[in-house]
Amino acid sequence: MIFSTAATKAANLSTTHRLQVHRLQVFRLQVFRLQVFRLQVFRLQVFQVALVLGIASIGWLVPSAEGADRPNIVFILADDQGFGDVSALNPESKIPTPNIDRIASEGMIFGDGHTSSSVCTPTRYSILTGRYHWRTRLQKGVLGGFSPPLISKGRTTVASFLRDQGYHTACIGKWHLGWSWPLKGGGYADDGGDFSGKFKDGWNVDYEADIQNGPNDVGFDYFFGISASLDMPPYVFVRNRRPTQAATVEKAFHRKGPAGADFEAVDVLPTLTAETVGQIKSHAGDDTPFFIYFPLNAPHTPIVPTKEWQGKSKINTYADFTMQVDWTVGQVLDALDEAGVADNTLVIFTTDNGCSPQANIPELEAAGHDQNYIFRGHKADIFDGGHRVPFLARWPGKVKPGTRTEQLVGQLDLLATAAEIVGAALPKNAGEDSVSFLPVLLGEAKEPIRTSIVSQSIGGQFAIRDGNWKLCVCPGSGGWSDPRPGRANLTKLPPMQLYDLANDPGEENNLFAKDPQRVEKMLGMLRENIEKGRSTPGESLANDVEVVMVKPIPGTPKQGK
């Protein structure tokens, strides 16, 4: 009985104690909730004060996702303009480029920026997809104006990715990635890559029917421009899915083909410029950020500066046209200023490959102008003059003005950079060769963002970088300069070329025979890039076609992969 009474008292005491503890916990929870409530009230009051004072943002008031930077992005891509054709990059340039230089002085120069190819179409594919073009059917050369699309359905592009993040997306200019032109009898045009002017189905295109598998199908809300290079028919402007005028006459801006009666080559650059300025002004007041991809038609052939620019350079028409390109850049910068959005806009200026021989390089050199600066070769070549290009970025408040970096960077890095800017992850099967250069832009990179990049010539010959070392997996230029495939006897040359760019940026001293171990290492790197279907970390992916790493040397038996 005594035991029972003691046990009962202990049980009652234990229950009382647990109740007291529970009440204390409830009290503490109520105090905590009250503190949270007071903090929320305080944040609301500060936010109201901020609104009154016109403060743009106070980061800790809102979740990080809502306060993330979402700048406008304008990507300007000139066509066939060399590294040395920008005076901010070439101190001895004879072509003034004050507006492009303004981007450099107010932003950053990338001294080691590269295209994935030394010609048009492949560069454009890599920019928009963050994937090397040679993973597709396009193993060499470029597409024509009536070619089917190169970007496959469902492929993530910079435009589709940013549109999913709430951006308005526009492409204004030279597309040159193929699309599906509807034919009058059904089906779609396919020039088979023959852009010589011999393709006759251009007259069977239904120019009043919707174009399929074009810019509007790969992420762009708006498109205005031309189907391919300005020397490739058809010569018509296209707005979204329809030509603005049917091709009813034949014209030739180097190659003959169907054209709109009112279409003139000289009008293209100023028309594209006006469209881009209009896009900036019409969307500057929106809450929606915008991405404008602006691939120019110039200074590519036909080299047709407008009357006010003819003779301005006192060198030749190419130099005149390059000055007009600089004017176009100035119009874009002025539009951003006038719209009040320059401070929240990342502007990138670059070019699709080096200067073309069509610029009359001997004439430029006679005037003391080196179109590709100290770099060997030009458009089409595997040498750096073919694919090391102007690469400048301005982002006020983010990129320190007047800076320069020698970080290795590629245009195909745009997709990963955009993803990091908006704080969103790319799909696992997208941007497989894209590396973000945002840390470089912000001055936060403590180490190289990439140590390797792959480039390709017009003939499909490969080159790969390993730090400052460059291996060209071919003899000769792989393009149009000497030693030129098909013209020079390349069998008398070493089968590959190894250059130390740190000491030999002009690629004059071939070290292939002196460093076989480095050659083997770099060949292994290239082979791995090809076989894994990607060059960034992640699961292996499939290339669209078989990729031949070492191309046959003209006039010799086929070599192995």
UniProtKB/TrEMBL annotation:
<feature type="domain" description="Sulfatase N-terminal">
    <location>
        <begin position="71"/>
        <end position="423"/>
    </location>
</feature>
<protein>
    <submittedName>
        <fullName>Arylsulfatase</fullName>
        <ecNumber>3.1.6.1</ecNumber>
    </submittedName>
</protein>
<dbReference type="GO" id="GO:0004065">
    <property type="term" value="F:arylsulfatase activity"/>
</dbReference>
<keyword id="KW-0812">Transmembrane</keyword>
<keyword id="KW-0479">Metal-binding</keyword>
<dbReference type="InterPro" id="IPR024607">
    <property type="entry name" value="Sulfatase_CS"/>
</dbReference>
<dbReference type="Pfam" id="PF00884">
    <property type="entry name" value="Sulfatase"/>
</dbReference>
<keyword id="KW-0378">Hydrolase</keyword>
<comment type="similarity">
    <text>Belongs to the sulfatase family.</text>
</comment>
<keyword id="KW-0472">Membrane</keyword>
<dbReference type="InterPro" id="IPR017850">
    <property type="entry name" value="Alkaline_phosphatase_core_sf"/>
</dbReference>
<keyword id="KW-1133">Transmembrane helix</keyword>
<dbReference type="GO" id="GO:0046872">
    <property type="term" value="F:metal ion binding"/>
</dbReference>
<keyword id="KW-0106">Calcium</keyword>
<feature type="transmembrane region" description="Helical">
    <location>
        <begin position="41"/>
        <end position="62"/>
    </location>
</feature>
<dbReference type="InterPro" id="IPR000917">
    <property type="entry name" value="Sulfatase_N"/>
</dbReference>
<dbReference type="InterPro" id="IPR050738">
    <property type="entry name" value="Sulfatase"/>
</dbReference>
